[in-house]
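Fold these two proteins, one after the other.
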Amino acid sequence: MIDAFRQWAFDRRDHTHSQRVYDWWSRHDRVYAAFVAAFLLGRTGEFRDRTVAALSLDPGDTVLDVGCGPGPNFERLADVVGPTGTIVGVDASPGMVKRAKERGEQLDCEVEVLRADARRLPLANDRFDGVCATLSLSAMGDIEAVVAGISDVLLPGGRIAVLDARSFQTAPLRWLNPLIEGISAYITNWYPEAPIVQSVEDMFAEVSIETFHGETVYVVTAKKGG
């Protein structure tokens, strides 16, 4: 029964489903924040801090937030790049883009938010000092194309940092995966088997990974060769 529900949830996902889901979340940002906090067992701020710190940004840098959602990373990024820096956010959901733009207007640095498909970033190559993605890549499907596009827009020597999650890796919690994956696929468009770490390792150098909560949550960082 649970396996059948999981398969039904996975089968119904498409671009329309994804946009509808994330537009709904954009209209319920407090519920969204509470959901993420529960998903990360109350450590949302800590994990976002780790992700931004891993970029090793400097004042005046230009940074890209892929799948930026309503902009929860913007304040952290603005604190690092400062008033001379630039933040660019990209998201496929019109509702999320609207929320992120409103958030960016409150910050003391240049913030640009674009609606775009992360697999085909409408951005110049070799533009960004750093690229982050938090709980977003595993909702995009074609990870190899997304990571390749990120590599294109990164400057040589620039860093990528990805915060994301995967299913339980060991028993007995692993037995809960069909239920959790089915619910998450329905309400977030999650692809739990997305080869994020492998794609980063294939594309970048100096790859490192930190894992948390029984290896279900991880931060993978890497540097573009030059």
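Now the second one:
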Amino acid sequence: MKIFPIQAQEDTVAAVDTLTEQYSQKWDGAAGLDQASPLIQTAASYDLIFIVLGVSLIIWFVLLFFIIRVDKKVSKLEEEIEKSNVEDTL
């Protein structure tokens, strides 16, 4: 018995379609949106890509701040080590 790839693909699509039909009412999240909090209403009214963008920008700015702060501390330590080396040679 040979199974052709086209036949297997059609069977998979049929399975997905039956799941969609059975659970389509349960996946409808916009039904109770009027009673949701303002934050949820705002998130639902715009594309979620803007929320993801905002969170990622916050993360990048925090990482940048941390890197700059660590660089300043390392520079200060390098200067102290250089001063101590100069004093030791004198």
